[in-house]
Write a structure and sequence with these properties.
The protein is mainly alpha-helical. It has five helices and no strands. The chain has one domain. Helix 1 runs antiparallel to helix 3.
């Protein structure tokens, strides 16, 4: 297994965790149900940790691909990933601070939702650029002909 394969396997977890966490946050705001608020909180924390792991694995996966025709798309994806990484950390720390200090005000909920929204948009952009690297530019794709069994000549 290569670092490119590892990155491709790992990246889907923080994407799913953050998107479902954001959906839970929306449901919590609309329903005022504490269960969904707790789910959103823990999924955000897990998603932020996953974003850290995904960023590190992506750094290793991208080594050697920074030159040639992949240079610009790779730089765009790396920049988007770094923004997503920091947004996930900031949003998680904000939520931990609100949770720890039990400072639940109406404006803190809206700031948290705004941060989470910006984070989810950033996740989507980063994922789109990563998909472009693979499906448009062929980054990390290993081309090989299938091995056929040959019959010995009579």
């Amino acid at each position: 297994m290569t670092t490119t394969h590892l990155h491709a396997m790992l990246i889907h977890f923080p994407i799913a965790l953050l998107l479902v966490g954001f959906l839970s946050e929306i449901i919590a705001l609309l329903s005022k149900n504490k269960f969904y608020k707790d789910v959103a909180f823990y999924l955000l924390l897990l998603g932020a940790l996953g974003a850290i792991v995904a960023y590190i694995s992506g750094s290793y996966a991208g080594e050697g691909m920074e030159e040639g025709m992949l240079e610009i798309p790779m730089e765009l994806h790396e920049e988007a990933a770094l923004i997503t990484l920091w947004l996930s950390i900031i949003t998680a720390l904000y939520s931990v601070g609100i949770y720890y200090f039990k400072y639940q005000r109406n404006w803190t909920k809206w700031i948290g939702l705004l941060l989470f929204t910006v984070l989810v948009v950033s996740v989507a952009r980063t994922g789109y650029l990563g998909g472009q690297l693979v499906f448009k530019h062929g980054a990390g794709i290993e081309l090989a002909l299938p091995e056929f069994e040959t019959k010995p000549a009579d």
